[in-house]
Amino acid sequence: MQRKALVMALGLACAGMACSAQAKDLTGWFVNGGVGTAHYHATVGSTDAGSESDTSAQINFGWRSRFIGVEAGYVDLGSVETDIPGSAFSLVGYPQLTGGHAELSGDGWTLGLNGHFNPTQMWYISARGGLFMWKLHLDASATDMSGTTHHGSEGRQSADWYAGIGTGVDFNRHMSLGVNFDFYKIAKDDVEIDNKVYTVNFEYRF
Q1: For the chain, how are helix, strand and coil distributed in percent, rounded to 5?
Q2: Nearest CA among 128, 123, 127 for reference residue 176
Q3: What is the DSSP code (8-state) at residue 147?
Q4: CA-only gyration radius of the chain, Å
């Protein structure tokens, strides 16, 4: 339902704003970037793995014909980390380990459509969505009874989707400042992570 709602919101924004947008021609190259917070909710199999948040940043560039265009970009979803008590290792059959630490980070590349619509001369509403090519990075360590620390790492990658909406102010033909809400989907095998990202965005149009 969440995916359907996001896709529907993106479609309605594109259709509705295209009908009511003022005749501002934004044809040309653009670049934008944003900084904010990513809020995660993860499930592993049928188990709720909890929620966390961290700083997120993104950058995009692309080309628009009037108010619709294509974009490509990169997003850093930040990371989450936790200490692992020795009792957790005992439960999974490793009583010789007394504790550990794990850090999980995510990032990826985006490729999709981008719209920038003007209900008034200065106020804009934006919509975006497309393919999200993500990668998860896990770095972990564990200490045994002798005090020796063991390190390991693992990566997992695949492709899912992203979608977002935003609003803000066009200061002139070239510059905008606004806020965005973006959703990045990560799912592979038994791991599923929903990423809700809130950012302040600046755009420059050439």
Answers
A1: 10, 70, 15
A2: 123
A3: S
A4: 21
Amino acid at position 101, single letter: H
* HSE (side-chain half, CA atoms, 13 Å) at 6: 19
Going through 66-148 in order, the beta strands assigned E by DSSP cover 68-85, 97-117, 123-144
Q: pLDDT tens for the chain, 206 residues: list them.
A: 455 544 444 554 444 444 444 557 899 999 999 999 999 988 877 788 778 899 999 999 999 998 999 999 999 999 877 777 777 767 767 777 787 777 888 999 999 999 999 999 999 999 999 999 999 988 878 887 787 887 887 888 999 999 999 999 999 999 999 999 999 999 988 889 999 999 999 999 99
User: Are 78 and 55 spatial neighbours (Cβ–Cβ below 8 Å)?
Assistant: yes
- Nearest residue to 83 via CA among 66, 62, 64, 98: 98
- Angle, alpha carbons 85-137-113 (nearest 5°): 135
* Separation of alpha carbons 192 and 85, rounded Å: 24
What's the count of helices (H) and strands (E) in the chain, helices before strands? 2, 8
Q: In this structure, how many other beta carbons lie within 10 angstroms of the beta carbon of residue 134?
A: 24
